[in-house]
Amino acid sequence: MPPGRTKAQDVFMRMRGDILGGVLRPGQRLRYGELCGVYGTSMGVLRESLVRLAEQGLVRGEQQQGFQVSPLSGTDLRDLSDAREEIEGLALRRAVADGDVAWESRLLAAHHELARTPVVDGEVTPRVSEDWAAAHACFHDTLLDGCANVRLRTIAASLRDAAEVYRRWAFSLGRDRDRDVAAEHAAILEATLQRDADLAAALLRAHIRRTTTALLAALED
After folding, report:
1. Mean pLDDT of all residues belonging to the chain
2. Is the pLDDT of residue 125 over 80?
């Protein structure tokens, strides 16, 4: 257990990582006895962790049936992705029009950090590293930060937050192994800095759509 982390925090973080990494799979029933053994913890600590995970939307409780990992919903994923393409595409167009040189500098710095951060963490069960996830979020947030419309940026950010679990599952459960995400980010950056709003928005929409396509394919399997 990492220094300074309580037993409850450790169990919560380990379970969260296993859900986002696909070890605990979408829709899986979470049986108390088994999980207490796997995570080496008590029933009380486990229940506390499950409640926190439910607050984040990663698990859900059902009366008389305990908890399960939140299931994948193809309908919700399609709706969420469609909304993201529209809203984030519009916000990026506005950012290209409104953004100043200081915004360009922040965007370059965010992309540099993203490009230099290892994507994968874990040797036995590879998963998206928390450092890369943070750098990825920073890059996409900064990309839209040039948009002067605060409400539009806020809506876009809330949609991206809602898609986080789907993004993680697309990595651990998806089948799109030939994808070059780094090249996609670099192309979006270049089009944005060239102030080509049409191309930048089209590349961002394709970036979102490819994640959705990979996860929907896994869902069908």
Report:
1. 88
2. no
